[in-house]
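Thread: Modeling a multi-component assembly for a lab meeting

Hi all, long-time lurker, first post. My supervisor asked me to bring a structural picture of a complex we are working on to next week's group meeting, and I have zero experience with this. I have the sequence lines for every component (309 residues in total). Could someone generate the structure of the whole assembly? Inputs are pasted exactly as I received them:
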Amino acid sequence: MSKLAAVRPAALKAGSVVWIPCELTNGIFPSEQSVKIEVNMGERETIFGFIPRDDIRAGERLNLGLVRAVILNATNGKVAVLFRGDILSQSNPVLVPREWLLKVAKVEA
Amino acid sequence: MILSYKDLLSAWKRGRIRFRPDLDESQVGLSSIDLRLGHVFAKLKSSPGIVIQPARGFDPTGHVEIEDTSKAGFVSGGPIFRLPPGEFRLAFTLEEVTLPQDLAANVQGKSSLARAGLAVHITAPHIHPAWSGKITLELYNHGPWTLEFVPGEDLVCQLILYKVSSPVDKRAADALSTYVGQGTPFPKRQARRPMPRRRK
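Re: Modeling a multi-component assembly
Sure thing. I ran the full set together rather than chain by chain. Output:
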């Protein structure tokens, strides 16, 4: 699996793939995992969903990892990111603060 | 606008709508495409006193029983899935579906199976453009008899495709339909068992 690097601002454009840190637990099906993302900038919120394992990278700790998201749009300080799978807590795409995404997300190097 | 037979065939043969495993042509209908029942079923266990907030996230660990009919030793003794009256299971279609950026879809039941009491979704039939994956089915038996299915073969739902007014950004659509860690998301079609006869 390819290495990850920090996101550059120019990479936040439609079609870019980013990897976002998340907490992981079991999903309903073995082929998926429960994903929890804490957005701790601006209006704090928690994103929760069931995501296919193909779209998850394991982290250094058992219950931490990264989830794949695709950028749909980036305007006015917010970025619309799309996840595969089911997002329960928000509409999908999810709007997240641009600065937060630049701080936490990774891209394939 | 709903796609009809000629457009469905064209969209499939030209690779605009993709399926893995691939369709048999007999699955294409006048204005829908029939999909097969997958092998994995999730039963949500009844647990007295449990309250969840489904729109805020929940941990299903310990509250789900998985039945995988593709694995030897399945309790029913064969590749058969049974749904007793009044019971609910989550399941997937056999096919992974990838939609292009300008088509949305609805998954719906089939009238023949609805007559026997089968519902395949609970008010959530919509699939967005550029979506990719197996479709989750919410199976419920409204009828008085146990229903029996052959996973991997029985056609239990149909996909109805619509043109959307403006397409999703192509770059985003392409990125969504790219499978992580796989060179190609759709391997060549493989020989398999003959398809069951199409049911209305």
